[in-house]
Amino acid sequence: MTGRTVRAEQVSATRELILTAAERLFAERGVNAVSNRQVSEAAGQGNNTAVGYHFGTKADLVRAIVRKHTVRIEEIRARLLAGIGDSPGVRDWADCLVRPMPEHLGRLGGPTWFARFCAQVTTDPALHQIMMEESLASPSLRQCIDGLNRCLPDLPPEVRAERGEMARHLIVHMPAERERALAEGRPTSRSNWDDAATGLADAIIGLWLAPVTPGR
Amino acid sequence: MTGRTVRAEQVSATRELILTAAERLFAERGVNAVSNRQVSEAAGQGNNTAVGYHFGTKADLVRAIVRKHTVRIEEIRARLLAGIGDSPGVRDWADCLVRPMPEHLGRLGGPTWFARFCAQVTTDPALHQIMMEESLASPSLRQCIDGLNRCLPDLPPEVRAERGEMARHLIVHMPAERERALAEGRPTSRSNWDDAATGLADAIIGLWLAPVTPGR
DNA sequence: CTTAAGGTAAGTCAAGCGCCTGACTTAAAG
DNA sequence: CTTTAAGTCAGGCGCTTGACTTACCTTAAG
Hints:
The structure is a homodimer. Chain A has helices at residues 6-29, 36-42, 50-55, 58-82, 90-98, 100-108, 114-123, 128-136, 139-151, 157-184, 193-209.
């Protein structure tokens, strides 16, 4: 049996072409600088409404691209979580937060666009919420955040929230920065995604453990 | 004498209207989501080519908005630099890097848009370079970076570059995040821009002083 | 084999865009 | 006072965009 779907395979192939083309264009030029037509053409679709037909609005397309990667990233995070010992420290939780994205990019291999895509979507006022929803929908991610917070009981809640936001920004934007450097042929401070993740984790841990200047 | 310029005042008033309207729209919706026409209309100009007439391309308009604020920010940084003692430490240099933007926003008072504007421009692939040029053109900024690097002789050069990039992202995006929270009426972790700057400096210093995991 | 369904191609449409042109208004120069 | 130059306004032109319509073609079901 060839599956019951010769047709369905072609459809999902077309969807995949559109997702890939859109991810690349959005990453390189910004979401709002690319029209649905351009995405359709870049995907090799003569029909200029292919995006609308398969995905609906541009926001729906963005969500679909995010979900396509989220599965793999979740798997990586689940594996890292499973590898944590009995008395996890800040480093353990930080790794679970930081490493999934860089490791995912490394596994994709070759040139990638997803990190820059995420940076673009996260910064866009109209799409920011989509990214937040898709991210926070992950129970394993919340588990990491909770675990980390339990490791930092001395940190005032507001400062914890503040530094969590900082870490979130770095986790999104630093891989994007490295990805861009690779795309443009510029030198990078780390030779592979794994080392880049280590450098990022080092810095974020330092950020979380930094002494707090008392308010006046 | 009313100056020799009744006319010139009106012109610069129009330019100011356009700059203010554009800064606000770009900050709220993203640069690429706003047309020059919309900017002209928001500035109360019946002519739909007002932006083109006064500023040229959209990139030129963005540059003009940046420069309008850069003057004040430079003044603040110069004052902070002048207040540094004989043996400056990491905290001194970090303050000179971190505080100018939040203090500038505080002085503007009321609702502001410049931080979000900077975040949008910095993230836009087509405009990123403009922001870098305008920023690095400041000798006082370079002085801060050099001073800081002299305080961190033990940090490998690549790690120093890496963490400098992280600090840059936080300095741009964290004020933007606070500004957005204020605009949307959400609670903020700090009650004023000065305290926000302190929290940011604390974290960035921790980031710079964090131990470096040795490469394998 | 026939038929219905669904995906793709191709063309059309109104709306909005940047850009250009020309007319009007007004401050400053001769 | 006349002339000049500059800022503003009003509108048209060509192009792109998202949305819609139609025709064709392949597949899976009857």
